[in-house]
Amino acid sequence: xxxxxxxxxxxxxxxxxxxxxxxxxxxxxxxxxxxxxxxxxxxxxxxxxxxxxxxxxxxxxxxxxxxxxxxxxxxxxxxxxxxxxxxxxxxxxxxxxxxxxxxxxxxxxxxxxxxxxxxxxxxxxxxxxxxxxxxxxxxxxxxxxxxxxxxxxxxxxxxxxxxxxxxxxxxxxxxxxxxxxxxxxxxxxxxxxxxxxxxxxx
Length: 202
Fold this sequence. Notes:
- By secondary structure, this protein is mainly beta.
- It has two domains: 8-74 and 138-178, Roll (Chitinase A, domain 3), CATH 3.10.50.40; 78-131, Thrombin, subunit H (Beta Barrel), CATH 2.40.10.
- The chain is 9% helix and 34% strand.
- It has helices at 48-54, 155-165, and strands at 8-19, 25-31, 37-40, 62-67, 81-85, 90-91, 94-95, 105-109, 115-123, 127-131, 141-152.
- Strands 1, 2, 3, 4 and 11 form a five-stranded antiparallel beta sheet that branches.
């Protein structure tokens, strides 16, 4: 596995698969050549082991590799399924049903200011059950694709990436749903690789 060289601009087209109980591949998401997944290496934008597999390749280089749960988003942990008071999500005693419903992914923040996402599994009269596991926790990830571009990143690309990571800019995917990721309802966490809705964010 290649050592991660920092400050490379990398664009990749790929298909991401997981495996079902019978070992059959299931397509999770796809980044096309026309709308590739773009990142700058060494800045923590992607999974470390994903990045390490890519940085040693050249433009048009193909890849097909599998990451274990430990290399990806960890094992699924039942203790990360928690219950919180329903009032946490209420405004003037009511839920905003446009954003708060069973199956919705909501942005959360702990007392230390750390941001993370939670999946609403159940809404009851007094409590809401949240799953804080990553949607791909406990699963092996298979990436199949090719490098659309790889080169030294410009100062502007590095600067804009750093702004994006700190929440001052978009996710870099060109998705109109990610304007600054400062919106209360944006489903994107730059440090933990959660999705923004465009399907190209890791």
